[in-house]
Every structure is written in C-alpha cells, then in structure tokens.
Amino acid sequence: MSEEPSPHRQLPRRPSSEHLRKQAKRLAKNEDLALNAAQRKLAAQYGAPSWAALMQNVEQVRKTQRPRLSIAIPKLASPRSRNFGLYLMLALAALPVFLPYFIIPALLDNFRDLGRALDLKGRGLATMGLALFALNLVLVARWKLIERWMIPLDQQYRVHHLVGGLALILLVLHPLKMALRYAPESWTATARFLFNISVWQNLLGMVALGLLVTLLGITFFARWRYETWRLSHQWLALPFFIGGLHGLINGLNPILGAYVLLGAAALFWRTILKLYRRHEHVFAIEAVRAVTGSVAELSLRPIGKMPSFAPGQFVFLDIRLQGMAGRPHPFSISSGPGDDHLRFGIKSLGDFTRTVPCLPPGAVVRVEGPFGGFSHLAIRNRRQHWIAGGIGITPFLAMARHLDETEDRTYDVDLHYAIGDEGEAAFLAELSEIARRNPNFRVRPNVGHLSVETLQLGGVDIAETDFLLCGPPLFMAEIGAQLRSLDVSSKHIHFEDFTIRTDETRAPVMKRAVAAALILVGLSVAFILIRSEFI
Fold this sequence. Notes:
Elements: H1 17-30, H2 35-45, H3 51-63, H4 84-103, H5 114-139, H6 144-149, H7 153-179, H8 187-194, H9 200-221, H10 226-234, H11 237-249, H12 254-272, E1 281-290, E2 295-302, E3 314-319, E4 329-332, E5 342-347, H13 351-355, E6 364-371, E7 383-389, H14 394-406, E8 412-419, H15 428-437, E9 441-447, H16 452-455, E10 465-470, H17 473-485, E11 493-495, H18 508-531
Parallel strand pairs: 7-8, 7-10, 8-9, 10-11
Antiparallel strand pairs: 1-2, 1-6, 2-5, 3-4, 3-6
Helix pairs in contact: 1-2, 4-5, 4-7, 5-7, 5-11, 5-12, 7-9, 7-18, 8-18, 9-11, 11-12
C-alpha cells in the first residue's frame, strides 16, 4: 500500500518574492544546502516545478489582487543604540567644561597649583551638573525636533532619569571639591568656606543645592502616589533658577549660559506659555469596554482631524473631567493606523487607571502626540520576535492590527505573550484571529515565567532577527539580559522605554550611586566639622 503524497504548502494571500527568498536562505542554512538546491526544494514544497516557476506564480497572484491598503504613517527615525541619548547628553554637558581649554591651551597652566586645580575642578563639576540640569529640562519639553533627529521620547525618559541622578551627584560634590582647596591651610578655613552665608551668592548656592537634594531625593527614593510625586517633581524648576542665578553672579561661561537660557526657554514653553497645546488633538470618549477583569479598552473618536501615527507609538491623554484635567498620562495606542478611532488597552494599576472603566461617553479628551520610535516599521530586519509581558501587549496589538489592515505578508513575526494566567490574556482572541489570516504571524501565549528557553529560538538566524520587548521594567531587563547571553547584539534588541517614574526605571544602579554620593558628602562634611573649630 503506497503512502499518500503530502499536500503542497499554500502561498500566502499576498505572496512576496522577497519573503520566499528569505525562506530559501533559512532552509539552506538549516539543512546545510546550497542556495539553488534550497530554492528547488522550497519550490517543490509549494508545488512548482522550479524556482523560476514559483516566482512566476507569485507575480501572477499579485497581479490579480486588489491594491494593498495605503495608510499615512509618519516617518520614524532609524533605531539607535539604547545608550545613544545618554552619551549625547554627556558630550553636550562636557562641552562648556573642556572647550575653553582647547581654545586657550594656556588655561591648563592653572592646574599646576593644587589649590587652584581643586577650585577649577569644583567649578567644572558645577558647570557640567548645571548643564545636565538644563538639558534635562529640554528633554521634558517634548520637542518634536529632538525626538525626530536625536532621541525618541520613550528613550528620553530613561535618559532623563540617568542624567538627573548624575547632575545631582556632580552638584553635591561641587562645593566639597572647592572647599578642599583650603584643607592644607586648616580644616576651620574649609568649614568656613562651606558654611559662609554672609556672601549672598553663596547663600543662593546653598539654598539651590538644599532644594535640589530634597526634591531629587523624593524623586529617587519616595514611593508617593503618582500625582503627589509629579507635583513635587515640577518644583525642580525652583532650584534650577536659583542655581542659575548663583552661577550667573559667579561668572557663567558663555556656553553654559546658553544652556541655561535654553533650559529656561523649554520650561517656559511647557509650563507658562503652554504653546504645546497648539499641537494637541481633541477627541471624545466613544466607549469603554471591559476586556478582562483588570483591563479595559478605551475608544476615542476624533473631533476634527485624525492624527497619523505609527503602530507602537504612544500619546498623552488629558481627560477633561473635574478632578482629572491637567494631568496627562501616557498610553500606548492599540488601534491600527488605518482605524478611524484611537483605542487604548488600559490596565487598572493606579488611581487614574482605576477610573477609566467609569468614564462617561462624550467626555472631551486632549491628545498630545504621537511620540516614540518603538515600532516594527522602524527596523530593517523583517524577521522579528515580539515579546510582551502583561499589558505590554498593547503596542504589539497595534502592530498586529497594522499587518492585518495592510495584509502585509513581508514580515515574519513570532509574538510571545507572557501572562500570569489565562484570564489575564487581554486581546488574545483577536490576535489569534489575525494569526489565522496571516501565516507569517504566529501568537505564542505563555502562562507563567517566560525565558529564552520557552522562546524556542533554536535555528533562528540571530544576525537577521530583531527582538522587540514591552512589559514591566524587570521583565524586559531579564529577557534582554538572557538574549544578550545568547550573543544577540544590543542593536537587535529594542525596548518600549517610556517609564516616567524614577522608582520604576531600569537603572537601579543610578539610585545606588545617588545614595552613595549623598552619604559620602554627608560623611565628608561631618569629618570637616569635627576637625575644625566649629564643634
């Protein structure tokens, strides 16, 4: 009894010659075949007598199909190194410190005297710290120019956390470094310099530093409610202006002065003038539906023009209801770019998100954005693994809906969805239906702990594959570290990074560095006081 021949593979609804070429390359690599042999084998699997015949079949199928839906999507910047923004801020902050020595090399002679060298180093710490402070204010202004050409906004918040901590460390070390130039003379002179409030510019510096330590200490270490934390964070403008005045009286160099003016302009643009509102879009709540016990989908209809966005981007929502207006919150867009509504999957995690299921239809919502560069469209490789943890599924839902809207079969995607239990799998039924229509899109739900072992990456061409991660910070940090342990290059690992609160950041090292710097300065001041005649 002869064995029945196995059925041939079916071409996708919208076949792509590019995708078939990539399949042939993977087949050649996995089975150690020459490329032409792999092409013949793949053609036979699709029922074609030769590779040329298979390519001809693809062209014939595509000629009979209707044109693919065209959706206006803003151009996204090419993804950069995850640390590019941090390196850029450090380079810009170092410019006012070191550039004068390149312009006037004779200034280096000042470092031959120990006291003068300590004084200059202390001023250098202050210069770089104040420059970082000013640049941080520019980051939070959400200027489109910076996002488009320098750092996407989702990465700006991570850079903002790191730069803020580094600015604090430099500024608290600044007076200590300057005071130590008097140590060879006496500890009393050192203490007198530190606590000399008879000179009012010194008093300004002490007040600015005290406010900065207090407010950034709250930012890094207090676990307050988001609204209270956000209000305390807004007061950081005060030590910036007092510190800028202190620096102006003591002689700002021109480059630092320009940075301070730029930071002040960004602050005024964002808070006082509120010119950013000209770029906001107005929506009304269409409906709120429960997806799971803890996740709701918010649907907004545009009042006016619908903004274009790329799948994976996020916006800030400012809901115009009593007690909620003026408190914008960031959410990833979960609708596809071809949808005539904006949709958001929102999980009840805090005071604001718990009110979402109770929002009345018709309420006005101001939408600022879109922002961010986290999207499958921004990545060159079309072989991708999307890894979602919990509500981190929302940007991937937008990407999957976009693939479905455009019937794009050129992407080869595995979506790994980590959930605590099956009842928490928001939007899983819709994603599975999209996967049923698109053979190049596969959904792999995972209940419980997700690791690279459960991703089943055997046979994956690491050099031709990109990994997109979105979920809780610790989840992304763990998966990212495991991927790097498999020799996946960092340039192929992409994070959805818009964590606003510092206590949620993926940079706990900065917290420890700030704590260590504050303890070091405190112990040093105590030592100086003990050795001096003040005690």
